[in-house]
Amino acid sequence: MSQGPPRSQFTQSVLAVDNARKQRRTRLLAGLAGLLALVLCAGGWMVWAAADDGEAGNQGAKAVQQAPDDIRNTVETPPSSPVGHLAVDYREKGFEKRFGRDATVRAPGTWATDKTLVRGVGGTLKGFELGTSKEVWSTELGGPVCGTTRHVTADGRTAVLFQEPPKPAEDDDKNKKKDGKKGSKNKKKGDDKGKGGDKKKGKGKKNGKGKGKKDRAEPPAPGPCTQLALVDLDTGKKLWQIALPDAEDASPTSTNVTLTRGTVTVAWGRGSVAYDMKAGKPLWRNTRPSACENAGLAGGNVLLALRRCGAGADADRTYRVQRLDPRTGKPLWTYNVASGVRRVHLVSSEPAVVAVAVRGSGVDKLLALDDLGAYRSTVDMPEGRYIDDCFTARFGTVETCDAIVAERDRLFLATKPKDPEVNRIVSFDLATGKVVRRFDSRGRGAMYPLELSGGKLLAFRGSADGVAPDAVVSLDPESGRETPFLLFSVPEAAGPVKPGETDVLVEGGRVFIAPKELRAERGEDGQGAAYGALGVEGA
What we know:
The chain is mostly beta strands.
């Protein structure tokens, strides 16, 4: 496990960001004794002081024996001390100067290995060394990132979709030369009425002064989302890059990429394709016109496809979920979603969990399927009770429900806070759809689930008062017991940590917080930078 020098209790980020910018949060404590005194005085936090002795000596994560092409599966265990120390503090310097004071730039994708934190920003991937925050590599993709997957191979590779670079403005002049035109200076008056017929109608204004000049100054339309690359997260090297076939209609809002063992798959409205990880060799493709569109592919150990059939209003469409053989693309089973459903989302591939919207735009029910695609159970989601961010993601209809976690037999949902700091996480039995256990936040900060690891649920808990730390906690689904995993402070410059707006990643015993959109920090101390990521690790 990579370990950087502990520069302060909680994180050096607090010193560099909160104190320097005179922000209201002053959580920095002088030492572990001060932290524990604060925790014990917080009443409800006393349970944290009684963590199991058996967990106290564990470090970060246990390695799981996997082949290089397997989808990574690490078992996280609490560090020996839950007090967070800085692992990465990334600020995008000069952001305001490059993009403008009020600009917002998408930052899709957050990944981590034992050595590196990787972020996607616009059309660039950047790698930062753990322990030093040094930018160790930067890879320009050639176009904005328009699709990522959270899945990573056991040896640290992942796939990224990005748009074709926009065509330069001079292409218009080249086309004019092909038509025998030399530009407005050489064009004679009345040419529009001469030879060439309809091709020359209406061209006078565009090739002359005034309106034509304005038209040429307009930015070119973004290219389709057709470029696929497999990237080594430790080096930033593009191991291979391929242009998707017959994918001119692959828009960022309708295209997704995912991984399963040894295979990279992509789906867009009228097509889907798969490639072997080793060299990008095509395995199968389906780009024939069909009455059913490819709404998305969910990966991991199992590959699921969501198909949307029919046209017209949402209520007139039908949906089907299929498990595919990742090497051939052939369906292994098909589940037909009941008619009348307006929207469908793939929450998880293993177990197969499907979110459906019947009445409005939010999730009404979660449907669990068994390994053969047969209906298993329904989890009801009354309107306004639970966080359901499945349909709020800007891109994709698969694997973007950040506040829902599913394992083989249980599913975890976060309720919407009654006030900013009070909510609960509820677990359900997927065999019956019934509630099994509730984890109350007890006013110590709203929380939501992140992942299941080693039989424990890891959840993010925000600070309730700006003095107590933010945290990732470990919840035992069997006993209901809560213990700290890591305590740290999220700078206000990073923005509020909310499902759908912030990536929260736990990997190798570390916690990484990264906003999905970057904005220039306000105030004199911001210096036009944008906060990009915070990483913490235990002692």
